[in-house]
Design brief:
With 289 residues, this protein is of the alpha/beta class. It has one domain: Rossmann fold (3-Layer(aba) Sandwich). 35% of the residues lie in helices and 24% in strands. Strand 1 and strand 2 form a beta hairpin. The longest helix is centred in the C-terminal third of the chain and has 18 residues. The radius of gyration is 20 Å and the shape is globular. The protein starts with 20 loop residues before the first strand and ends in a 15-residue tail after the last helix.
Length: 289
């Protein structure tokens, strides 16, 4: 496995490669305060003693209802939030002590991608990749090839982002992540709200990124079909706690055995594990459902 600078990362003291991500006893809480008296009125445990590891080149799913802790987890992994307890290591680097090194290894795509909306897809991507030190005569051609492969029509590439649909903008966000060649890609519900064709294009590109660029991918979603199609293993979060982790098939078998049934779908498995459907809403980040 390579770092952003092309150097291999190996476990200390031996040839075994480290886990891509190692999370140990991670906790994060938010306190809601009264707007009048500024006193605490509610403490929300967005993440509560969560531990798991992600292997290199794995597509690792995190499933949960809206507000279960998925987005908080992604923000902690991407160094945007400081945890209250526990530790997180990304390819051996501690997210607190080695923040700069971690940031060089990751890229994040969220449900709401940030762009300069007055600029075109091409201009946005040229700006983004040059921040990562990339350049050269063939860069425009490479950007165009990636956008076309994602299903963006060539005439759209030169249009301002504000004139493109959200599905098209999300494809540009995936292309931006692809061009920066992240070692770890964090996807926070990247296909939510996309039409079926756009969703399929993005899912195929996620697999391509893992297979062709040795990327490790963490995918947060409440889309059961997407998780079963893409993920090698899945962690299920409920109320900020990790309630199960296994392959999609393993989760289904365990839940079916517990229910005394021959088989369950992944959605039925999720309901069996959490007691609620995937489109339910929980409490997270100080928000009350």
């Amino acid at each position: 496995m390579r770092t952003g600078g092309g150097q291999p990362i190996l476990a200390t003291g031996g040839p075994r490669q480290v886990d891509a991500v190692a999370v140990e006893h991670l906790s994060k809480r938010f306190v809601r305060r009264s707007l009048i008296r500024h006193r605490p009125i509610q403490t929300v445990h967005a993440l509560d003693d969560v531990s798991f590891s992600v292997r290199q080149q794995e597509i690792f799913g995190v499933l949960g209802v809206n507000g279960s802790g998925k987005s908080t987890l992604i923000r902690v992994l991407s160094t945007l939030l400081i945890p209250d307890a526990g530790s997180v290591r990304v390819f051996g680097y501690d997210i607190g002590r080695d923040e700069a090194a971690v940031k060089r290894l990751i890229n994040r795509v969220s449900v709401e991608a940030s762009f300069f909306k007055k600029l075109s897809a091409m201009e946005n991507l040229l700006y983004a990749v040059r921040l990562y030190g990339r350049g050269g005569a063939g860069l425009r051609r490479e950007i165009e090839q990636i956008l076309v492969a994602l299903g963006l029509e060539r005439p759209r590439i030169g249009q301002p982002l504000e004139q493109l649909s959200r599905g098209m903008q999300q494809k540009v966000a995936i292309a931006r992540a692809f061009l920066t060649s992240p070692v770890l890609l964090l996807l926070d519900e990247p296909t939510t709200g996309l039409d079926p064709r756009s969703k399929k294009d993005v899912q195929e590109f996620v697999i391509r990124l893992r297979d062709e660029h040795d990327a490790t991918i963490i995918l947060c979603s409440h889309d059961m079909d997407e998780a079963e199609r893409l993920c090698d293993r899945i962690a299920v979060l409920d109320g900020g706690r990790l309630v199960a982790i296994d392959s999609p098939t393993g989760l289904r078998r365990r839940a079916a055995a517990g229910a005394g049934l021959p088989d369950l779908t992944l959605e039925q498995t999720f309901i069996q594990l959490t007691g609620r459907p995937p489109d339910a809403v929980d409490v997270e980040d100080g928000q009350v459902a």
